[in-house]
Amino acid sequence: MANIGRIHWLNEKPIGSGTYVLYWMQSSQRVDYNHALEFAIQQANKMDLPLLVLFCLTKYPQANLRHYTFMLEGLVQTKKSLEKLGIQFVMLKGNPVDVVHEFARDASLLVTDQDYQKLQRGWRENLAASISCPFAQVESNVIVPVENVSDKEEWSAATLRRKIHKHLDEFVHPFELSALANSSLEIDQDSLDLNDFEQILNSMDIDRSVKPSPRYKGGIHQAREKLSDFIAHRLGDYDEKRNDPNLDFLSGMSPYLHFGQISPLEIALKVQDAKKGGSTAYMEELVVRRELAMNFVYYDKDYDSLDCLPDWAKKTLAEHRDDFRQYIYTQEEFEQARTHDPYWNAAQREMVLTGKMHGYMRMYWGKKILEWTDSPEQAYQIALYLNNKYELDGRDPNGYAGIAWCFGKHDRAWKERDIFGKVRYMNANGLKRKFDAGGYVEKITRLEEKLGYLTDK
After folding, report:
1. Mean pLDDT of 138-151
2. Where residue 2 falls among pLDDT bands split at 50, 70, 90?
3. What is the structure's pLDDT at 365?
């Protein structure tokens, strides 16, 4: 096993007398650099049993056709990779607690990967209490396991950085999967046919109003192609050029990290090996900033509301809630990019069209929603709604942390002003000082024309 610190036993049940080891794959939807899969293989070999991988396709809150398409594109590749290892991949629709509980009846051991949000943690807690076999959770979607870094919610990146860095030598190293001794391919199990996932999508009761992304296709192959291109052509100048949305100097890894289609460890190793000028800045984003978000949702149950903010931010926003607002927009007007601001509209249109907004523009986007709504509470919920609906990397710790940052989370108090109080302010003039803001608007218009359809203006 790559790191013993990644393993957490969720119950103390004795080893069962089942016919296989079961890995419930949920947040780490990949084969390579999957510590949960490696642990499951090792345990299956130790027990001289085959290993079965189960995935539950459930109606996830706020997930729509865009998200499910991207996820299933990745799972097609994961299934093929597992089969090459002699591991059967089973996918069924239903509530994960019910489906996994049924499969665990014939398992000697249940293994899963770790997630940090309330819903997924609730699934695991319910299963741990109800199944009769041992249940192990293995943390594989962060570089350093969250509890190894800190036993509490951290104030900011500054307080987390030192704690993470002292563990990096222990957790940043490559590993290869062990060979499975007993194939599970001949086990007779019903499963949805991933070879025709369009039919699976058509059978699901999901929101179909958001089209699949014309720019991002799911899967480890696509993730690695984008990563290789980024390292070869943009990593060297990443620190200098990343905040210019006209240059596309970001890696594009966040959708693939969101669905666990690529490991942050694999990315970190390849970035480090490249030894390019932007490696330090990129590792700060990949490790410190990303894992600050994991720490946030793991230790703060209010991560999806204003209650998560530090006291100073809640106080200052409350003091300015009745300030005059020159512009007030409804959720529908925001969604349709019908504000007075062409830069904000372009950012919204980019997200609606592609499923990914440039990171610098997303900060500006969130700040302006706060400025142009009746109350901070309404602004927070509108920002979450839009981000979760259209972003491929929405509905995850980074999304929640990014929205919260716009309202003062993980930040300090700044000069006091109307509406924002002491929360950090951003304006259009700041965009223009950093890059050609008008060029960004033109870029998004050209992109819409190229991709064949226009968003509402």
Report:
1. 97
2. low
3. 98
* Rounded distance between C-alpha atoms, residue 161 and residue 123, angstroms: 31
Distance CA 239, CA 271 (A): 13
88's tokens: 């059967």
Mean pLDDT, the chain, as a whole number? 96
> What local confidence, expressed as pLDDT, does residue 50 receive?
98
Q: What tokens appear for 320 in the block?
A: 């300015």
User: pTM of this prediction?
Assistant: 0.97
The one-letter amino acid at 137: Q
Total residue count of the chain as it appears in this document: 457
User: What are the residues whose beta carbons fall under 8 Å from the beta carbon of 206, sequence distance 6 or more?
Assistant: 59, 63, 64, 65, 68
Going along the chain from its start, the domains and CATH numbers come out as 4-141 (3.40.50.620), 144-175+218-299 (1.25.40.80), 306-450 (1.10.579.10)
Q: Which residues pair with 107 in a beta bridge?
A: 20
Q: What gap in Å lies between CA 326 and CA 341, rounded to an integer?
A: 13
> For residue 415, which phi and psi values (nearest 5 degrees)?
-60, 135
Q: CA–CA separation, 386 vs 399, rounded Å?
A: 11
Tokens 């076999």 found at: 133
- Residue 103 region by backbone torsions, left for phi larger than 0, else alpha for psi between -120 and 50, else beta: alpha
What is the Cα–Cα distance from 6 to 308, expressed in whole angstroms?
Answer: 27
Evaluate whether 41 touches 178 at the Cβ level (below 8 Å).
Answer: yes
> How many Å apart are CA 65 and CA 92, to the nearest integer?
18
Distance of CA 409 to the CA centre of its chain: 18
